[in-house]
Specification:
Shape: elongated
Bound molecules: 2-acetamido-2-deoxy-beta-D-glucopyranose
Largest sheet: 5 strands, mixed
CATH superfamily of the largest domain: Immunoglobulins
Strand order of the largest sheet: 1-8-7-3-4
CATH topology of the largest domain: Immunoglobulin-like
Structural class: mainly beta
Low-confidence stretches: 1-27
Mean pLDDT: 83
Signal peptide: 1-20
Protein name: EGF-like domain-containing protein
Strand content: 35-45%
Keywords: Signal
Number of helices: 2
Domain EGF-like: 176-187
InterPro entries: EGF (IPR000742)
Helix content: 10-25%
Length: 192
Protein backbone atom coordinates (compact mmCIF):
# COMPACT_ATOMS: atom_id res chain seq x y z
CA UNK A 1 0.00 0.00 0.00
CA UNK A 2 2.69 2.47 1.03
CA UNK A 3 4.73 1.49 -2.04
CA UNK A 4 1.79 2.37 -4.23
CA UNK A 5 1.46 5.76 -2.57
CA UNK A 6 5.19 6.36 -2.96
CA UNK A 7 4.91 5.54 -6.66
CA UNK A 8 1.94 7.88 -7.01
CA UNK A 9 3.82 10.57 -5.16
CA UNK A 10 6.79 10.34 -7.50
CA UNK A 11 4.40 10.35 -10.43
CA UNK A 12 2.77 13.58 -9.25
CA UNK A 13 6.16 15.12 -8.57
CA UNK A 14 7.22 14.33 -12.13
CA UNK A 15 4.05 15.91 -13.50
CA UNK A 16 4.72 19.03 -11.50
CA UNK A 17 8.40 18.99 -12.35
CA UNK A 18 7.47 18.89 -16.02
CA UNK A 19 5.07 21.79 -15.94
CA UNK A 20 7.90 24.36 -15.63
CA UNK A 21 5.79 26.96 -13.90
CA UNK A 22 7.32 30.22 -15.09
CA UNK A 23 4.67 32.86 -14.71
CA UNK A 24 3.66 31.94 -11.19
CA UNK A 25 5.11 29.94 -8.34
CA UNK A 26 2.44 28.00 -6.53
CA UNK A 27 2.34 24.98 -4.32
CA UNK A 28 1.15 21.63 -5.61
CA UNK A 29 -0.31 20.79 -2.22
CA UNK A 30 -3.51 22.52 -1.27
CA UNK A 31 -4.90 20.33 1.47
CA UNK A 32 -5.71 23.15 3.89
CA UNK A 33 -2.96 22.14 6.32
CA UNK A 34 -0.33 23.52 4.05
CA UNK A 35 0.38 27.12 4.93
CA UNK A 36 2.92 28.84 2.73
CA UNK A 37 5.50 30.69 4.77
CA UNK A 38 7.69 33.45 3.34
CA UNK A 39 11.29 33.20 4.49
CA UNK A 40 13.81 35.91 3.66
CA UNK A 41 17.53 35.16 3.29
CA UNK A 42 20.14 37.88 2.65
CA UNK A 43 22.15 37.54 -0.56
CA UNK A 44 25.25 35.42 -0.03
CA UNK A 45 24.05 33.97 3.29
CA UNK A 46 23.15 30.43 4.34
CA UNK A 47 19.81 29.20 5.64
CA UNK A 48 18.68 26.35 7.81
CA UNK A 49 14.96 25.64 7.44
CA UNK A 50 13.01 23.11 9.45
CA UNK A 51 10.35 20.95 7.85
CA UNK A 52 7.13 22.00 9.58
CA UNK A 53 5.24 18.96 8.27
CA UNK A 54 7.89 16.68 9.80
CA UNK A 55 7.58 18.47 13.16
CA UNK A 56 3.78 18.11 13.10
CA UNK A 57 3.87 14.38 12.30
CA UNK A 58 6.57 13.71 14.86
CA UNK A 59 4.48 15.36 17.57
CA UNK A 60 1.59 13.03 16.78
CA UNK A 61 3.85 9.96 17.17
CA UNK A 62 2.96 8.69 13.73
CA UNK A 63 5.43 6.51 11.89
CA UNK A 64 7.38 8.49 9.32
CA UNK A 65 8.14 6.55 6.15
CA UNK A 66 10.04 9.16 4.17
CA UNK A 67 10.78 12.86 4.01
CA UNK A 68 11.68 14.64 0.84
CA UNK A 69 12.34 18.25 -0.03
CA UNK A 70 11.38 19.54 -3.43
CA UNK A 71 12.50 22.75 -5.11
CA UNK A 72 10.42 24.51 -7.70
CA UNK A 73 10.37 27.72 -9.68
CA UNK A 74 12.34 29.94 -11.98
CA UNK A 75 14.32 27.70 -14.31
CA UNK A 76 14.37 24.51 -12.30
CA UNK A 77 12.14 22.06 -10.60
CA UNK A 78 13.52 18.97 -8.94
CA UNK A 79 13.56 16.68 -5.96
CA UNK A 80 16.46 17.55 -3.68
CA UNK A 81 18.49 14.35 -3.54
CA UNK A 82 20.98 15.39 -0.87
CA UNK A 83 23.92 15.40 -3.25
CA UNK A 84 26.82 16.82 -1.19
CA UNK A 85 27.81 19.05 -4.12
CA UNK A 86 24.40 20.64 -4.22
CA UNK A 87 23.66 24.06 -2.82
CA UNK A 88 20.78 22.56 -0.85
CA UNK A 89 21.59 19.68 1.49
CA UNK A 90 19.68 17.87 4.22
CA UNK A 91 20.98 18.15 7.74
CA UNK A 92 21.88 14.76 9.19
CA UNK A 93 19.25 12.86 11.21
CA UNK A 94 16.63 15.57 11.27
CA UNK A 95 14.96 17.01 8.24
CA UNK A 96 16.37 20.49 8.17
CA UNK A 97 17.25 21.82 4.76
CA UNK A 98 20.50 23.76 4.62
CA UNK A 99 21.06 26.21 1.77
CA UNK A 100 24.49 27.63 1.07
CA UNK A 101 25.46 31.00 -0.37
CA UNK A 102 22.00 31.97 -1.56
CA UNK A 103 21.81 34.08 -4.72
CA UNK A 104 18.83 35.82 -6.38
CA UNK A 105 18.38 32.97 -8.83
CA UNK A 106 17.49 30.66 -5.95
CA UNK A 107 14.25 32.42 -5.14
CA UNK A 108 11.54 29.82 -5.32
CA UNK A 109 9.35 27.31 -3.57
CA UNK A 110 10.73 24.71 -1.19
CA UNK A 111 8.30 21.97 -0.32
CA UNK A 112 8.79 19.36 2.34
CA UNK A 113 6.78 16.17 1.75
CA UNK A 114 6.35 13.70 4.58
CA UNK A 115 4.94 10.25 3.93
CA UNK A 116 3.73 8.68 7.16
CA UNK A 117 1.78 5.70 8.41
CA UNK A 118 -0.86 5.37 11.07
CA UNK A 119 0.11 2.09 12.78
CA UNK A 120 -3.45 1.46 14.01
CA UNK A 121 -5.07 1.54 10.60
CA UNK A 122 -1.98 0.93 8.43
CA UNK A 123 -3.07 3.88 6.33
CA UNK A 124 -0.39 5.91 4.59
CA UNK A 125 -0.78 9.63 4.15
CA UNK A 126 1.13 12.58 2.88
CA UNK A 127 1.60 15.85 4.68
CA UNK A 128 3.52 18.78 3.34
CA UNK A 129 4.73 22.23 4.23
CA UNK A 130 5.87 24.98 1.93
CA UNK A 131 8.43 27.75 2.21
CA UNK A 132 8.53 30.61 -0.24
CA UNK A 133 12.22 31.46 -0.32
CA UNK A 134 12.82 35.15 -0.95
CA UNK A 135 16.22 36.75 -1.26
CA UNK A 136 17.06 40.05 0.41
CA UNK A 137 18.86 42.33 -2.02
CA UNK A 138 18.23 45.80 -0.48
CA UNK A 139 15.39 46.41 -2.92
CA UNK A 140 12.75 48.40 -1.07
CA UNK A 141 10.37 48.58 -4.01
CA UNK A 142 9.35 44.95 -3.53
CA UNK A 143 7.59 43.54 -0.45
CA UNK A 144 7.74 46.90 1.34
CA UNK A 145 5.33 49.18 3.09
CA UNK A 146 5.79 52.30 5.25
CA UNK A 147 7.17 50.38 8.23
CA UNK A 148 8.77 47.27 6.79
CA UNK A 149 11.23 46.77 3.96
CA UNK A 150 11.39 43.00 3.91
CA UNK A 151 14.24 42.82 1.42
CA UNK A 152 16.42 45.08 3.50
CA UNK A 153 17.61 43.44 6.73
CA UNK A 154 19.77 46.40 7.82
CA UNK A 155 18.16 47.88 10.92
CA UNK A 156 20.27 51.03 11.42
CA UNK A 157 22.55 51.18 8.44
CA UNK A 158 22.88 51.40 4.70
CA UNK A 159 22.04 48.24 2.78
CA UNK A 160 24.40 47.38 -0.06
CA UNK A 161 25.12 44.52 -2.40
CA UNK A 162 28.70 43.73 -3.30
CA UNK A 163 29.27 41.83 -6.48
CA UNK A 164 32.32 39.75 -7.31
CA UNK A 165 33.32 37.03 -9.71
CA UNK A 166 34.36 33.75 -8.17
CA UNK A 167 35.76 31.25 -10.66
CA UNK A 168 34.08 33.17 -13.48
CA UNK A 169 30.69 33.01 -11.77
CA UNK A 170 28.99 36.18 -10.57
CA UNK A 171 28.51 36.15 -6.84
CA UNK A 172 26.61 38.68 -4.76
CA UNK A 173 26.62 39.37 -1.06
CA UNK A 174 24.58 41.76 1.04
CA UNK A 175 26.30 44.02 3.56
CA UNK A 176 25.00 46.53 6.07
CA UNK A 177 27.08 49.65 6.54
CA UNK A 178 26.09 50.68 10.07
CA UNK A 179 25.29 54.20 11.20
CA UNK A 180 27.38 55.59 14.09
CA UNK A 181 26.67 53.83 17.37
CA UNK A 182 25.33 50.70 15.69
CA UNK A 183 27.03 47.40 15.12
CA UNK A 184 26.35 43.81 14.10
CA UNK A 185 25.82 42.04 10.81
CA UNK A 186 22.47 43.81 10.43
CA UNK A 187 23.29 46.91 12.51
CA UNK A 188 20.81 45.95 15.19
CA UNK A 189 23.20 46.24 18.14
CA UNK A 190 24.26 49.38 19.99
CA UNK A 191 27.86 50.20 20.89
CA UNK A 192 28.15 50.91 24.61
C1 LIG B 1 19.98 23.55 11.74
O1 LIG B 1 19.14 23.95 12.82
C2 LIG B 1 18.88 22.92 13.78
C3 LIG B 1 17.87 23.47 14.78
O2 LIG B 1 18.24 24.71 15.27
C4 LIG B 1 20.17 22.49 14.41
O3 LIG B 1 19.92 21.43 15.32
C5 LIG B 1 21.13 21.99 13.34
O4 LIG B 1 22.37 21.65 13.90
C6 LIG B 1 21.33 23.09 12.28
N1 LIG B 1 22.17 22.56 11.21
C7 LIG B 1 23.24 23.21 10.74
C8 LIG B 1 24.03 22.51 9.69
O5 LIG B 1 23.57 24.30 11.15
C1 LIG C 1 -1.00 -3.65 9.63
O1 LIG C 1 0.11 -4.28 8.98
C2 LIG C 1 0.75 -5.26 9.78
C3 LIG C 1 2.00 -5.72 9.05
O2 LIG C 1 1.83 -5.71 7.66
C4 LIG C 1 -0.23 -6.39 10.09
O3 LIG C 1 0.40 -7.38 10.91
C5 LIG C 1 -1.45 -5.83 10.81
O4 LIG C 1 -2.42 -6.84 11.03
C6 LIG C 1 -2.06 -4.70 10.00
N1 LIG C 1 -3.12 -4.03 10.79
C7 LIG C 1 -4.29 -3.66 10.28
C8 LIG C 1 -5.23 -2.97 11.20
O5 LIG C 1 -4.59 -3.85 9.09
C1 LIG D 1 3.93 46.12 6.71
O1 LIG D 1 4.41 44.82 6.42
C2 LIG D 1 4.64 44.03 7.57
C3 LIG D 1 5.29 42.74 7.13
O2 LIG D 1 4.62 42.15 6.06
C4 LIG D 1 3.33 43.80 8.30
O3 LIG D 1 3.53 43.01 9.46
C5 LIG D 1 2.75 45.16 8.71
O4 LIG D 1 1.49 44.96 9.30
C6 LIG D 1 2.62 46.08 7.49
N1 LIG D 1 2.26 47.40 7.96
C7 LIG D 1 1.38 48.18 7.33
C8 LIG D 1 1.18 49.53 7.92
O5 LIG D 1 0.75 47.80 6.35
Amino acid sequence: MSTMIAVLLIFFMLIHAGSGNNEQCSSSMNDGTNIIIDRYVPLGQHFNFSCDAYERIKQKYLQIISVQWLYRCQKDSFILDNNPNSRFVYDQNEYFLIGYDIQSIHEGILECHVLYKNSLTNESNLESSTINLKVQDCNEKIDSNASHALRNPCQFGQCQVVSAKLGGIKHEKLYCDCFDQYTGLYCDGLFF
